């Protein structure tokens, strides 16, 4: 009990410290004193650029990692995530359709397209993998990646045909450099969605145990499954619309957290959200500092850190260390 | 074949712990024990499917790991539980694979002959040209055994050959095992869950508990009330039927 | 009898391939300029033949190694590495730089980098990962996600004019391959086949599964490693030659398996290569005459292959277990 609260507390404190620090990293230098001494310029920068960015980062980190955790729980497979489950590529296709068919559309209309596509893509993927019995859990993400490639192929074709490839690439690479007041509020949608995930956490856990198991406990399997996938897809889509796609977070953060805390969803959800936010925040700070005054896109930083961590996790799983392995053996039940 | 201080570890858990015994030639030896006692792992190490962490396996005067893999496959054959072959393969083609160590895929007349003999021995002539994915579980198991026979090895290792078979087919399988030993002079090593099959069809029994050899000896020596209760933690009754110990448990 | 039906099917395939080739060479050719047209079209055909063989053969071997028929070697990540190399060259050296303009040089650069990566990931890492093929594959896909995130990062901050120049080389095409590259590729492929001649004969046994193969005296780990490395290098050659084509392997390998219904890999590989030829030539015909070059052939194949993949998934679902 104490340990559970302890890790949450440590993460909260760390997150707050980093968040405060990140507010003061940027092209224009100002300090805490400037704000309180009534430096109007500094205050404006803070409100228009720094604070929105921080909020967007927190929402992205929490959202993507929670989305990943939900998908992993529902499919009972540690390798499923918005990246390996075709959610991100579907959202990108949705955005491209919005750009093509409604060129003057607002952010909210684009978001609508992205939501629809992401939800549809995720549903189709899960429906597919449930029809098949996999000999090996690793086949599931491989099929997901290939399915994502198919959707990416369609996106590429449309982009190529209408000469939108480079315009599209700003949604392919996650970055926060364009986040400022008036352009990022949509990502706040993540907050109510995460709240919903908290409410249904136990249901997701039960559904993850399989169809028969949940029927036995009186939980409607299909309804909860689709609810969970919809929440995960909507979180992903809102992040992709605002910040572009950021792979790995949904895959790595939940795995790291469960390694230390076990698989009970309620217990890990808070920590996963906090740790995800912390991970993205630190990556963003690195990206802003390395080649200041320019900045590296967050996707690159997360990509480097993420692929390294993922390889280490795989390694540990192979050598039978850590809990990354044991729980994943169930495959995807349906 | 002599096994000395064989050890296997998964993480921190020792699944096989300093196991030593000798495999009597030309006899049927059954490995028994509760789940997780390490019998299948020992079998895996004897058959080189599982790498050992420590210990020695002497096979015909030489360390098993020093054997040339192809030469070894002419002396020792293993049949595991998981045999979901996904190829479009007829029974005859499957059995022909047993000759692979000798001819590397190019069947010579004498290989052809061995294949025919194996098919006949397992009474598979009638279904020799059927695809294996169209067969019943018992037929497929027989086809796999025929392949092992065609492989023409002195030693045959079978990992739970009666698994997933009904009483009719399981009993038939055990009779085949007996014939392999009696008629063809093979040394057969089995992993079995059914104690009574072990008692009635094997010559020697090796009982495992928690990664160690608890008892090794002839059927009559090992299958006793006291030994079995100790191994399985359940009360046993033993009755002598046809000169063999029939164990009763419930 | 079975042998006979295999031979008939192979003959039909050869007939179809020849038909496609003749069609490709003669449709819309003004007899007056026949010689000139041949000069343009024959090299393209040869490139397609080499590509079809590389991808077709590699896909069959790859599927047997993975023990799964719905995978395609595009999972090996050579496509995204290729895209990254070309993007990086244009980004750092410019589209007018020597490497970007000189086809032989860029081919060699591609091959060296991709070959190096292949040896690192599918040789060394594979060994370190205890020869667990699916895990090394997952590691490979992780690397390829990483490569493409670097590549898209570069394209986003790239000068749009440079980007237009780059786009051409990121899309597969059979037109701009010169004969010296074709020669190098052929020599390399022959070399790989010679080096792997023993392993290739073991494919039929490998398909029985790891335990059976070990039982029959095959050194599975070593064979798998060498074959996987060979597959990756074959794909690297095809990619360096014409550019990234995903899903071609999936289509032709599965069609070949469905058509021949045999376990014998010599037939499967042969059929797969022929089918690759038919698909490529047919696709190129469609692109040139039906779509008037409005879409590149690789996109056509990706979309076609994508739908085929979904059909396979759903079909397999009913049969379960693979």
TrEMBL record, chain B:
GO terms for molecular function: ATP binding; ATP hydrolysis activity. It is found in: Cell membrane. GO terms for biological process: iron ion transport. It comes from the Bacteria. SUPFAM superfamilies: P-loop containing nucleoside triphosphate hydrolases. Residues 1-235 form the ABC transporter domain. InterPro entries: AAA+_ATPase, ABC_transporter-like_ATP-bd, ABC_transporter-like_CS, P-loop_NTPase, Siderophore_ABC-ATPase. Keywords: ATP-binding, Cell membrane, Ion transport, Iron, Iron transport, Membrane, Nucleotide-binding, Transport. It is a peripheral membrane protein. One of its GO terms (cellular component) is plasma membrane. The keyword Cell division does not apply. It holds the Pfam family ABC_tran. This is ATP-binding cassette domain-containing protein. It comes from Holdemania massiliensis. The lineage of its organism: Bacteria, Bacillati, Bacillota, Erysipelotrichia, Erysipelotrichales.
